Amino acid sequence: MSDADLQVIGQLLDRFGLGFHLSDDSGQTLAANRNHAAAAGSGREANGDGSHVVTLDNGRRITVTHRPSDADLRFRLLAEHSTDLIIAVDADLAIRYASPAARPLLGCEPAALHGHTLAELLAPEQRHAFVARHFSRSGPRDGGTELFQVLGPGGRARWVEARVAPLPPGNGLGDFLVTLRDAEQRRRAEEALGQANAELSALASTDALTGLPNRRQFDGTLQKEWLRALRDGIPLGLLMIDIDRFKSLNDRFGHQTGDRFLARVGHVIRQNVRRAGDMAARYGGEEFAAVLPGTASTGALEMAETIRRCVASADTTDIVLGGYPISVSIGVAASVPLSGSGASALVHNADAALYQAKRNGRNRVEILH
Description:
Layout: H1 3-15, E1 18-23, E2 29-32, H2 34-41, E3 51-55, E4 61-66, H3 70-79, E5 85-89, E6 95-98, H4 102-106, H5 127-135, E7 146-151, E8 157-166, E9 176-182, H6 184-204, H7 215-232, E10 236-243, H8 246-253, H9 255-272, E11 279-284, E12 287-293, H10 297-312, E13 328-335, H11 343-359, E14 365-367
Parallel strand pairs: 13-14
Antiparallel strand pairs: 1-2, 1-4, 3-4, 5-6, 5-9, 7-8, 8-9, 10-12, 10-13, 11-12
């Protein structure tokens, strides 16, 4: 076959939208038509998808290629200029195409991903969840984004937004299109927001002066523990604690010093109400409370007496020169909740016992019988 015949064949193939390329045994181009130039410009290589190579007796090679469609050219133009990593995979998750964004996101060349699977890019502890979420028959394929971790440069885990979409049959790319977007900043922002919300929640339920849970948290905890005790048929104990003659102390030393005494009493109570499940709280003003789940009257009385003694012996020389004696009166209530009653009954009984302690001389513990 003469060179003129090969030129005619190249022109004929050009009319049918096929590329024609003739090279010598060293790979040097001898002839090529326009469609071959378009295919080469799209990134297709000889003997790649849609190409056929014939070697002649004299060592020359004829390569016939399909010209890429306009849709294919548009896809590659968008994918190769996108900051998102776009990956096409087969049903077995083998990677068939990766966009240039693999370089900044994963620290490797796109071609280095060929021969690997999508699962290999994911952090090991997240591979199963990701594959089950997006590629199992029962898993949803709604195209929504989720946060996952991939292995970035140096094997460091990196957060990405992942989106998976099925591709139509015969598309020439694969079965699924996977888009990975860098989500490190989003993750950091979400963590900062979560921490801020947690701090706000803690501030909303904590007394700033003593660091103890405030009345709001006390009410919620007491109600929860009352319902738990009612369900399980176990006792619930409650202490209502009031600093004796606190108004006189405030009038003598001033409100700032009075606040320091309040904080000292709160510290003593917190140090003694330490069992898992127990909660000490500032009830309001100079009054404190302690919720004691699973505690009958004997145990509640013992806890109250311990707190009373510790407050009476507290060192206050760092608050006022020479110190100043302080004491508390404590009302105790404990019972197994009954259906039809509420936690307010327990509070009422503990309050009544507290006022009885005040009437009987203060610096004492009382319980109603």
